[in-house]
Sequence to fold (306 residues):
Amino acid sequence: MGGTLRDDAVDRPVERAADDVGDVGLFGPGSVTWRIHADPVMGIGGLRALHLQALHPLAMAGVAQHSDFRADPWGRLLRTVNYVTTVSFGTTSQVERAAARVRGIHRPLNGVEPESGATYRVDDPELLRWVHCCLVDSFLTTYRRAGGPLTGAEADAYVAEQLRAAALVGVDPGCVPANVADLAAYFAAMRPELRATREAKRAAAFVLLPPMPNRWLEPARPLWASVAGTAFALMPRWARRLYGVPAVLPTDLGATAAVRAIRRSLLLMPAHVREAPPVRDARARAAGTEPDSHQRARRRLVDAAG
Fold:
C-alpha cells in the first residue's frame, strides 16, 4: 500500500549525486512535512495507514494479489519507508526517479477483488487518492496525538504540501483534499465504500504479529505487538468498528497516552541516533554543507585507491 507493491526498483537505494548540496527536494527545511516526517513516531503513523488503507476492498485486493508482504514483511516495510523518506527528504532527482519507478510498476497491475468480483487497476486515480489520504491523515493524526506541536494553520499547510506527493504517483492535485476539513469530508464520503474483507483482517493480524526477521529478535515480539497495537488503536472509531473491534473512549485515551510515552522515550535519544541518514543528509544539504553520505563514499574511494 502506498507504493508498496512488488517493486524491485524501489528496493534499490536511490543514488546520490555529487553536486546535491543546496538541493532540498520537494519540501525543504521550512516545510511542515520535514518537521512531521522527521519525528520518531512516524513509523507508528505508517502502521496506522496500512490498517486504514486495507479497509478499501480494491486497495486491499491489489496488495494481496501483487505484493510480497507475506513472504518478506520486514523487507517490504523497509522498502516502503525508503520510498516515503526519499519523497520527503531526497534531492529533486532522487524524488523524480523513485516516483517514476513506482508509476512504472503500478501501470500494468490489475485484478479482481474476490469477494465482490469488482475489477481494479492499481494505478486507478481513485485508489491512489485513497492510499494518499490514508498516509496523510495517519502521519498528521499520529504526530498530533503523540504531542507534536502543531497549530491548525500548520496542519492545513501540511495537507496542502502533500499535494506534491500525490502528483508524483499520478493523482491530479486538484482532486485531493487540500486542508484538514477537506480531508475529514473525504473520509466521511468514502465510508459507505469501505469494509474489512477477509484479506484485510488477515493483513491486520499479520501486521500485529508478523514473523520476526530472525530468532535473535524473537524476544522483541511483545514489544512489536504493543507498538503495532497502538497504531491500530489510533485509527478512528468507525474504522476499528469495521474490523469488528469495539471502539470506546478508554481505548482512544490509552492509545494517545501510549503514543505520547513512545515519543517522549524516543526523543531522549540523540538526534544522530534517532534520525535516519536521509534526514541528516537533507539537513546538511539545506545548510550548504556536504552530507555525511558523500563524505563516507569519498573516504571509501580513497581507501580503495590506497
In short: The CA atoms of residues 120 and 200 lie 16 Å apart. The radius of gyration is 19 Å. Confidence is low (pLDDT under 50) at residues 1-17, 297-306.
